[in-house]
Amino acid sequence: MLKTGRTLGALAGVMLAIAFESAPASAGGTCSELQLQCENGRTYPLCPIAVSDVGEVVTGHLVTAPRRGIHVRLVPMGQGYRYIGRGVWFDGVREDGLLYFGNNQPIACKVYHG
What we know:
The chain has 114 residues and is mainly β. It has a single domain, classed as Lipocalin, CATH 2.40.128. The protein is built from 1 helix and 8 strands. An 8-stranded antiparallel β-barrel has the order 1-2-3-4-5-6-7-8. It is globular and about 35 Å long.
């Protein structure tokens, strides 16, 4: 079991646990009910790879284009949560977050379930 204390907000933890109970990761397709809907008009599904005993997504696959994605992992934070991968990271508190691609300006996103 991964011990992260109170690193995830209660709502975010519940959303992640519910979203990934029945959404196994699969290669090459949309595999998650959890999505980042961003102000750039794009939707980025987050597919779980590993989930802790308490329902926190430890690692996942952020789908950035059809059949393309980036492996991301949870980094414990004092408030909210952060998923990082090669050239990308997502900082969030509950359903609000910012998606960063490299050194570009952040893209505001909402986390949606279903």
